């Protein structure tokens, strides 16, 4: 249970930090492609820092893989949104969407992991 | 060149010895059941390579006859008290997996845990392990590797240049390397996605 809760908290943290960092760096009207590239870069840096800080406590791969997806895709999505001024007008709203995005990605990867889990080759059976 | 690579590896893992247990705390807890189940298949004279600080000794079944190797003397210093506490025979030796000081057909079982993400020449190391295994002997591996899922595989490729400086590569094709070394796969199990996997193979 500790690890399950921790996985979600880390995912939400990466989502919030990425959303806020992108909000700080973007302005309405910036070229959307540039905004997405910057967002992706910012998200990747944040994921790396958080994953290396908390990975030892929660498990490296279970921390790193969701965090990388949240940082990379979240950064792009948030950059796209902020370049268009398309919602989440306040920092609080942006952070909330970041947390929701992080939690959804963690949940999706847990389901995916469950689907992949188990033997792929078993000549003993 | 070979000596330089060996010295680099030794220096890297000597440097990691003090933080190794801290860095592996979460993995140690999350994967404990899988390791215990895998190691329950050990039999006969066993060889563990890249022993690290010996934090996996607690998952070994009692009463085994095990030789545990590491290239790093600092790691072996940390492992020594744990080896003494193992309820069986467990001998530590400083050795490079690519140059094993054992004759052909010595061991019944080889065990590795997150080893072939770090061995600079993985196929050479695996071939050497195959050499020291007896015919019919088994290799039991708990390893992380590159995901075959494109999205995750690319992410692991991107992270590897940095993680390599700290320790492991994240994008090795370890199942492929096991086959290239001449083993026959007996069992492959996904533990976390298709990144952390159990590989069981035999020497025919």
Question: What features would you describe in this structure?
Answer:
The complex is a heterodimer of chains A (125) and B (204). Chain A is mainly α and 125 residues long. Chain A has a domain at 28-97. Helix content of chain A is 82%, strand content 4%. Chain A has four helices and one strand; from the N terminus they run H-H-H-H-E. Chain A has helices at residues 2-25, 32-58, 60-84, 91-116; one strand spanning 118-122. Chain B is α/β, with parallel strands linked by helices. Chain B has one domain: 3-Layer(aba) Sandwich (Rossmann fold). Chain B contains eight helices and seven strands; from the N terminus they run H-H-H-H-E-E-H-E-E-H-E-H-H-E-E. A seven-stranded mixed sheet of chain B has the order 3-2-1-4-5-7-6, sandwiched between helices. In chain B, helix 5 links the parallel strand 2 (65-70) and strand 3 (89-94). In chain B, helix 6 (122-132) packs across helix 8 (174-180). Chain B is globular and about 45 Å long. The model of chain B has no long low-confidence stretch (mean pLDDT 93). Strand 1 (118-122) of chain A pairs antiparallel with strand 6 (184-192) of chain B, so a sheet runs across the interface.
Instruction: State the helicity of chain A in percent bands.
Output: over 70%
Q: Can you count the helices of chain A?
A: 4
Strand content of chain A: under 5%
**Spatial strand sequence of the major β-sheet of chain B:** 3-2-1-4-5-7-6
N-to-C series of helices and strands of chain B = HHHHEEHEEHEHHEE
Mean pLDDT of chain B, to the nearest integer, reads 93
**Number of β-strand runs of chain B:** 7
Give the mean pLDDT of chain A: 94
What is the helical fraction of chain B, as a range of percent?
25-40%
Question: Biggest β-sheet of chain A: count, sense, barrel?
Answer: none
Fold-level CATH name of chain B = Rossmann fold
Count of alpha/pi helices of chain B: 8
Low-confidence stretches of chain A: none
Structure classification of chain A: mainly alpha
């Amino acid at each position: 249970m500790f690890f399950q809760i921790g996985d979600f908290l880390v995912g939400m943290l990466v989502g919030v930090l990425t959303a806020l960092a992108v909000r700080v760096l973007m302005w309405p009207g910036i070229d959307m492609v540039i905004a997405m590239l910057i967002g992706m870069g910012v998200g990747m840096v944040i994921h790396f820092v958080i994953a290396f800080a908390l990975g030892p406590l929660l498990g490296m791969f279970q921390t790193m893989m969701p965090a990388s997806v949240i940082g990379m895709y979240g950064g792009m999505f948030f950059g796209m949104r902020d370049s268009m001024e398309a919602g989440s007008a306040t920092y609080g709203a942006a952070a909330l969407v970041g947390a929701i995005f992080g939690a959804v990605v963690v949940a999706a990867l847990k389901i995916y992991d469950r689907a992949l889990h188990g033997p792929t080759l078993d000549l003993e059976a | 060149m070979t000596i330089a690579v060996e010295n680099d590896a030794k220096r890297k893992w000597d440097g990691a010895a003090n933080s190794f247990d801290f860095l592996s705390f979460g993995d140690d807890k999350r994967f404990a059941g899988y390791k215990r189940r895998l190691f329950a298949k050990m039999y006969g004279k066993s060889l563990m390579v890249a022993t690290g600080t010996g934090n996996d000794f607690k998952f070994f079944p009692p009463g085994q006859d095990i030789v545990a190797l590491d290239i790093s003397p600092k790691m072996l210093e940390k492992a020594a008290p744990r080896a003494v506490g193992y309820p069986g025979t467990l001998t530590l030796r400083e050795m490079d997996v690519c140059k094993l000081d054992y004759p052909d057909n010595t061991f019944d079982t080889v065990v590795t845990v997150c080893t072939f993400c770090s061995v600079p020449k993985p196929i050479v190391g695996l071939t050497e392990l195959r050499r020291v295994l007896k015919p019919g002997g088994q290799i039991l591996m708990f390893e992380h590797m590159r995901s075959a899922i494109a999205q995750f595989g690319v992410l692991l490729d991107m992270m590897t240049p940095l993680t390599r400086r700290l320790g492991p590569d994240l994008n090795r094709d370890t199942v492929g390397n096991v086959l290239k070394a001449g083993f026959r796969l007996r069992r492959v199990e996904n533990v976390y996605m298709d990144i952390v996997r159990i590989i069981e193979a035999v020497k025919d």
